[in-house]
């Protein structure tokens, strides 16, 4: 692997540094980004591994020889494969950590010096100044942030989409309806390139965002069909484990533990919309209006 990596032709002042992390398969690395041609914001202090941390630090410290200065470390959200080096890198480089307010209580031992808010603009000085608009995009995680360089149309999008694999919506802290709303929001930004945490740069990101929405809504229809096929319209309903092999029949069984979480997230969305009903650990299709 060649590190650091350019992110694409015509994108100035942005570099990627993929580092090995304990992330979900098929991904094996989390990409950190250096944003700014003069003042530099480092995004995703991800790796917890000593060998990777040494290379990451050498990369970060190397900007000084280019006449560039580090100003802060930003995190897109609190998941372990994104913040595994946050405390270490902040201490080693003497940099503050910036994150959304919702991240602060989820990052024990990591002092959040600046709490970033939706719509805020981060201005990085230099020969070619960069202005980054902060976007609060919950759904995958309540504290999730994206960073948009509007001038170049470059969107650092964390775990909203991926260049490899897909994105898990864990119902313990995620929200499927909110996630879809935020993906729709990202699709409307007109970004020229998306820079995800997992996988390479994504050209024509609007098309990918639309595919994500279509895929999730298609899966939702399979969940609704599973409620009916499992006989869940009766009083007893069906458990998640009974619905899973029907709703995710096209998914390899070794992925079912993750699919089970996604299934529950879909069901919670349907429940809030009045399209599914839950009693204890069993689910059933809500009666159609007028039925």
Give structural notes.
This protein is of the alpha/beta class and 291 residues long. The chain is 30% helix and 24% strand. It is built from seven helices and 15 strands. The protein has a seven-stranded mixed sheet with strand order 1-2-3-4-5-6-7, with helices on one face. The protein has a six-stranded mixed sheet with strand order 8-9-10-11-12-13, with no helix packed on it. A hairpin with a 7-residue loop joins β1 and β2. The longest helix is centred in the C-terminal third of the chain and has 25 residues, at 205-229. The model has no long low-confidence stretch (mean pLDDT 94).
Contiguous low-pLDDT stretches (5 residues minimum) are none
Structural class: alpha/beta
Q: How far from one another are the termini?
A: 59 Å
- Beta percentage is 15-25%
Number of helices: 7
The SSE string, one letter per element, is EEEEHEHHEEEEEEHEEHHHEE
Mean pLDDT: 94
Strand order of the largest sheet: 1-2-3-4-5-6-7
The overall strand count is 15
Largest pleated sheet: 7 strands, mixed
The share of residues in helices is: 25-40%
- Which geometry do the CA atoms define? elongated
| Computed CA radius of gyration, to the nearest angstrom | 21 Å
Multimeric status of the protein:
single chain
